[in-house]
Design goal:
The chain is of the alpha/beta class. It is about 35% helix and about 15% strand.
Amino acid sequence: MGTTANIHIKTKEREDIQYSVWMDGGYHTLGLYLLNNLAYKKNDFLDIFAEDEESDFHDDKQEYLYYIDFENNLVDIYEHGEKINQKVKEYLLTERPDLVKLIREESIKRLKKLPIGIQTFEKIRDPKENYLYIDKTKEALDLIENGTYYFLSRPRRFGKSLFLDTLQDIFEGKKKLFEGLYIYDKWDWEDRYPVIKFGFSGNRNLKELYAVIEKNIDSNKERLEIDCKKVDDSDVCFANLIENAYKKKKKKVVILIDEYDKPILDNLDQLEVAKESREVLKRLYTQLKENDQYIKFVFLTGVSKFSKSSIFSGLNNLRDISLLPRYGTICGYTQNDIETDFKELLEGVDLDELQKWYNGYNFLSDKVYNPFDILLFIDSDHKFSNYWFKTGTPSFLIKLFKEQHYNLATFENLLVGEELLESFDIENISLETVMFQSGYLT
């Protein structure tokens, strides 16, 4: 027994593709598969037709019409002009639970894996890994095309490191990683640039800080295959690295610095060490201005926003995008992301409740969800909990509370003006500003 079905398919590339196919029963399997929004690959849908000779749901004289929208992952099924979506689902759930189980098991295999703790763009985009990625390349392209020196402040575990890694792969011309993403057909992938990338870890004294800087310089020298003069001053080494990268590659240099402020923040309980670390970093970052002629693009990230005069002295063209509405969703997940990319992973979840728990971050644009919260919520079988708070609380904030004996009750119904958004310095720390920049006030 079989039937004829006309299939109209809408994709991103084409508005209407039509097929007329003969199916040996089981066309309703396709219906369930798509009605549950599990058709992630356009070329897979014909593979799930199941033979079902004993089905009494249809006969060979009936014609069925499918409207399949792969752009929005939706389907409508019609029988002689009547929409029968619900009828198909009810039939399968009551009469063919074996097929329902089979399809659900198969669909689970197709779901994207959660990129918990992964900050490497190349790994996330590896087809064999099958990780979920929320496209931020539109914002990346906007930055590249409209400026040179940028600074972004966001709380920890908000996706800053992944965004930095994305920028690196763009400038290094790794075209294959960006297939299907916004930037793919808008960037000249043959136009490659040398990338210098720094990342700061914790240090409790100047010796450890110098060791971290030296390690960063050595790793970049090795990756870029360049030599630099062996000198004692870290800022001179950094300057040599920039100039030599430019001369060898004959292209201007891209500089990406992650957690620029960590050597200071980790020592707020040791004020003298914090001040000394600030001076080391100030000399290091001054090289950005001194070597402007060799530089194509600079992007720095951190949790805090220190005043320019304290760290970025002379770098007057550094553009702070932390609270520009245009880049308000550069990190984090939007409501649209939750309702589309995460839809299957959040099946059965009360999205209003999800908003109450995790959608409280506002950087003067649309509210965003903290990625770490959402990923752990899904991984924990949809159990509501303060995941970010448990693992993302910066140690420097705890130290501040202990040292200064702050009263948390003062934050209830707190109203502040524009001063909340201002930067601070080691000798003049406003807890309200620190709490905002670290993600506890919004």
